[in-house]
């Protein structure tokens, strides 16, 4: 249970967006917009200028705002969750 990141989808289309939670706390924000997937660690639990960018990925489709299918979604969201958990654990040491 201690190493679980739960995603809450806050928009499902253009852009596809998620809050990442660890327990009751928001620790991350994931967004796919204009062909750019970003994953930010939120040290203070909200969107601010001091967020830490953990992942940037640019897809070939310039206007991509949603994942193509569940397999692609799972791959990238699992990658984001892993990055968020690593950063969380690093900062909590």
Mean pLDDT: 90
**How much helical structure, as a percent, in the residues?**
10-25%
Total DSSP helices: 1
The assembly state of the depicted protein chains is single chain
Main structural class: alpha+beta
Principal-axes geometry comes out as globular
Q: What is the domain tally?
A: 1
Q: Please give the largest β-sheet.
A: 5 strands, antiparallel
Q: Secondary-structure element sequence?
A: EEEEEH
Secondary structure tally: strands: 5
Rg from alpha-carbon coordinates: 13 Å
**How much strand content do the residues show?**
35-45%
pLDDT < 50 stretches: none
Cα-to-Cα separation, first versus last residue: 18 Å
Highlighted features:
single chain; 93 residues; alpha+beta; five-stranded antiparallel beta sheet; 1 helix; 24% helix; globular
Model description:
It is a single chain. The chain has 93 residues and is α+β, with helices and mostly antiparallel strands. The protein has one domain. The protein has one helix spanning 70-91; strands at residues 6-12, 16-22, 25-33, 36-41, 52-58. A five-stranded antiparallel beta sheet has the order 1-2-3-4-5, covered by helices on one side. It is globular, with a radius of gyration of 13 Å. The mean pLDDT is 90.
Write a concise synopsis of the structure shown.
By secondary structure, this protein is α+β, with helices and mostly antiparallel strands.
Secondary-structure blueprint of this entry?
Elements: E1 6-12, E2 16-22, E3 25-33, E4 36-41, E5 52-58, H1 70-91
Antiparallel strand pairs: 1-2, 2-3, 3-4, 4-5
